[in-house]
Amino acid sequence: MSALVYDLRGTRGYLVADNRGRLVGRVECPMYGTRPDEPDALAVRSGFFARRRRLVPAAAIDQIDGRTRVIGLRVEREGLHRFL
Asked: In 24-53, which positions are buried (b, 16+ CB within 10 angstroms) versus exposed (e)?
């Protein structure tokens, strides 16, 4: 099993879809945790006026398509944590 390393810093505005192809939301910003210069998760907002966001860890990302600006996940959207 190979682990791909994605650069999450340039993903603001990308659409995020779960493993079934259902829309999770749009990337609001990368989130930094373990290292100050390398993001390890994404904050994803589900609607235009939505207050709640979902936390998408880098390990849950299956692929990032820069041409279509879509991020595909390995997990279902119900498996993602919500936060304010």
From this structure: bbbbebbbeeeeeeebebbbbbbeeeeeeb
pTM of the model: 0.86
2 in a domain, yes or no? no
The CATH number for 34's domain is 2.30.30.240
In a domain, 32, yes or no: yes
Residue 11 tokens, joined: 């993903």
pLDDT single digits (tens) 41-73? 999 998 777 778 999 999 999 999 999 999 999
Residues 6 or more apart in contact with residue 78 via CB below 8 angstroms: none
Residues sharing a CB contact under 8 Å with residue 79, sequence separation 6 or more, in sequence order: 60
